[in-house]
Design a protein that fits this description.
The protein has 274 residues and is of the alpha+beta class. The protein is 34% helix and 29% strand.
């Protein structure tokens, strides 16, 4: 795991979140070795394990012990109000289906938000132990989450992937999708505009999709916001911190969000509107 430390006024919050996410990652690895208590939530593909619930409680309790005035919003624990106006947004395991299958494609996500702005975000990548992260630097001239400047640790592996992907034109783009099947596939194959890019990937973890898009491993990713900011709050900030664009558009009567290279997003948005 990289050992990035926070800087600026949010350094205590960043360092606390980094320590908690590292510990949670150890617990997640240990939990995968035991017989899991698994149940179904909203549908047969929406699983939750005992480890999801245990990690959710662990992360939220540790953060609120450190910052008791803050609130929390977590996938398994719901909302706990605070008095500071800030909320810790937590996904203990994003990619639970992969996790219970013994696959490494899952992540832990922690973000700190205030109103509509994400102040910091961290994503633990179980495939290689990397912690992708960013801290927002407010821009007084143009406030708002999408216009905030950001800073994030840059990893050598990320810079290499970014350089390799940057050599490829839009028709060779690799796009991650976290969408309903009808927005991905048509009777003729991939649904437009996905049929106009090089290839797609479905990882089963939106947190990983956004972290890998920020790192340059994917050229873009497509997903729905819905009412689950634990899936995207940290990842969108990290993507913005690496110069990626984030915008919304419409595909197959489904409102989606695109994050990634601006040229790839422009091509996909233009194609979808035709």
């Amino acid at each position: 795991m990289n050992r990035a430390a926070g800087t600026g006024p949010l350094a205590p919050e960043f360092d606390a979140a980094a320590e908690v996410i590292r510990r949670a990652a150890v617990l997640a690895r240990q939990g995968q070795d035991r017989l899991l208590d698994i149940s179904v939530k909203s549908g047969p593909a929406d699983l939750v394990s005992a480890v999801d619930r245990e990690l959710d409680a662990f992360i939220v309790e540790r953060l609120l012990d450190r910052f008791p005035a803050d609130g929390s919003l977590s996938e398994e624990g719901g909302r706990r109000p605070g008095t500071s106006g800030r909320t810790w947004v937590v996904d203990p395991i994003d990619g639970t289906h992969n996790y219970v299958a013994g696959l490494p494609y899952h992540a832990i996500s922690i973000a700190l938000t205030q109103g509509s702005q994400t102040l910091l975000g961290l994503i633990y990548d179980a495939t290689d132990g990397t912690i992708h992260s960013a801290i927002a630097v407010p821009d007084a001239a143009a406030p708002g989450p999408a216009s905030a400047g950001t800073t994030a640790p840059a990893l050598d592996a990320d810079r290499g992937a970014d350089a390799r992907r940057g050599q490829l034109d839009v028709p060779s783009a690799l796009v991650a999708v976290n969408l309903p099947a009808q927005a991905i596939f048509s009777e003729a194959g991939l649904h437009p505009p996905l049929d106009r890019i090089g290839d797609i990937r479905i990882t089963g973890s939106l947190c990983l999709d956004l972290a890998w898009t920020a790192a340059g491993r994917f050229d873009a990713c497509a997903y729905r916001h819905r009412d689950n900011p634990w899936d995207w709050a940290a990842g969108e900030l990290i993507a913005l911190s690496r110069g990626r664009s984030v915008t919304s558009t419409q595909w197959a009567s489904t409102e989606i969000v695109l994050a990634g290279r601006s040229d790839v997003i422009a091509a996909l948005t233009h194609s979808a509107a035709r």
